[in-house]
Amino acid sequence: MDSTVKKQMLALSPLRQIDEANVQIAREPHASPPFRVRVHLVTPGPDISAEARDHTFAAALGKVIKRVTEEIRNRAAKRQARRRSGAQRLLPQHQAANHGSNVSFA
Fold first, then answer.
1. Within 13 A of 42's CA, how many CA atoms are on the CB side?
2. Could you tell me what percent of the chain has a pLDDT over 90?
């Protein structure tokens, strides 16, 4: 299990810098589904957390990795959208300053 978790965490590193990964694996025999995996990633900026349950360890781990990957991609998309919207807000002011007004001289 350790090597499987480590491999999955290392596979996330190209998407986001991970300073620390805390992974909790629990098998609760009286619960359904019995396997629970929690992940808390310490990253620059907000940390990322996810939890998943399933009937096998592999399935629960796969679900939690998918959720973490989606969260990383969503945050990256939001960051890019903020950068684009900030550039677009500055662009009309910049264009007006450089092009002057539409005044004709006779």
1. 5
2. 57
- Chain centroid to Cα 85, Å, comes to 20
pLDDT tens per residue, range 25-73: 999 999 999 999 999 999 998 999 999 999 999 999 999 999 999 999 9
For 2-81, CATH number?
A: 3.30.160.100
Residues 6+ away with beta carbon under 8 Å from 20: 41, 42
Phi, psi of 98, rounded to the nearest 5 degrees: -85, -30
pLDDT of residue 21: 93
* Listed residue (75, 72, 70, 35) closest to 52, CA to CA: 35
In angstroms, how far is CA 86 from the centroid of its own chain? 21
β-strand 48-54 against 20-27: which pairing, if any? unpaired
